Amino acid sequence: PVRRLVRRNLNGVPHGTLCLHSPVVLHNYLPYEVHYTIGDRPESCLSAGASVPSCCLDMEKNHRVDVKLHSYQGLDWAGKFYISLDMDMYEMAVMETTNEKGEKKQMALGVHTTIGGSRDVFLFAPYWLINKTDLPIEFRGAGSCTIYQGNTTNDPALFSFHRHRRKKAKMRMFRSKWSSAIPLDTVGHAGVVTCRDKDSGKVYQVWLEIQLSKLKLTKMVTLLPFFMVVNKTSSEVTFTEEGQEDEYWTVIQPEEVLPLWPHSGVLNLVVRQPGVENKGAEIPVLSQYFPIHKSHTTVLRMWNGTALTVNVVGGTENPTTITFTPFQPGDAPVRVVNCCHNAFIRFHQKGMSQVIVLTPNQSVLYTWDDPTEERTLWWNLYKRDKPSFPARINQDNAGVETVVLPGTETTLGNKKNGTARSKQKRTNIHWVSYLDGLQRVLFFTEDASLAQDVRE
Questions:
Q1: Residue 223 above 50 pLDDT?
Q2: What is the mean pLDDT of residues 54-70?
Q3: Under 8 Å CB-to-CB from 384, ≥6 apart: which residues?
Q4: Helical spans, DSSP H, in 13-79
Q5: Are strands 250-252 and 277-278 parallel, antiparallel or unpaired?
Q6: DSSP character for 304?
Q7: pTM across the whole model
Q8: What 3-state DSSP class applies to 8?
Q9: Under 8 Å between Cβ of 32 and 48
């Protein structure tokens, strides 16, 4: 019985599997819909990312495929390629059109073929140019005269090199000169491309990133403004570059993101805020200048004791983002606390003439007088003519300085007989740098035990 059951199962097992494949499968790897005609067959439509088998082709013959791309950059494009048994793995299909001025334009699409069960034919563009700068951009191969227009929308522009040419391109914006050659064959490459407008003197800096698409045949080249401004406050912010205060100001609304195209190489910005009225005219209040060429967080002093926080990040692995946010506790570089009984503490930014004096039992939130200069804080006693001490506000720290209190000199003995002596009162100023929540605090006291408690 067991033997008979095994025989029955073996007799039911098929001796082979017959797979039926269409001769050709056409794949649309473009981000746009294409219309195509194979031979004398009716025109068909193939959506972006779709594929269609063709089951009635005699592969012993060559078959012409006419391709149309409607309304790409406002024009209708047409081209052709051939399907045959001896077609190359990679071929180019030249697409042509005529603009409203009667000028002929060309671009090339890639045709990639693989052979498995069917002959898979992929229509693709070697490069997608994704322009997120909101400005018109033109591309061309480094050794080519064919110019490709970059879309000002999020729709990708299609780009390719002539066969056997080096994979380097140049770009320009408006009437600027062509940039230096940009290598586009390195996936993961990112960097800054500079275009200079000789007539206006303006310099356009564009962040370029190259990524391999999931389709594997296409590299995606994304173009972004190198500087972007974000307003995370609840009110509009008005800003401009240093040196452009008399030319123009930019207003950014809440939650808005704007590209920034600096006019000069100074790379400092300033914020303007409505201020006091004088004889019927409003006098605006300007913040300190702050740099945008390096990462930092800065609190800007504004009108009537208010403040605005600006955060600048990026510039090495990403574009530079300049974000305005409302002032929050912990944003200020340091809170200086003077708990001394007799000493007046003065402090200032290195190289700056502005000085702040704290009386005993007084504290103040401090931000930089000039954010564009070196961010080092120095402290001393008021009216003390000796060198100042550096304030350690970058990390937790503590120390003590023995100083003479100014104005405490007393005379001992008789001045007439030359036996007079001068006596000065010395004291120890203990300082502690620590974090109170998110806020850095620089604490001064003459009490050693209080300094120890604060430190602990």
A1: yes
A2: 89
A3: 403, 404, 406
A4: none
A5: unpaired
A6: G
A7: 0.80
A8: helix
A9: yes
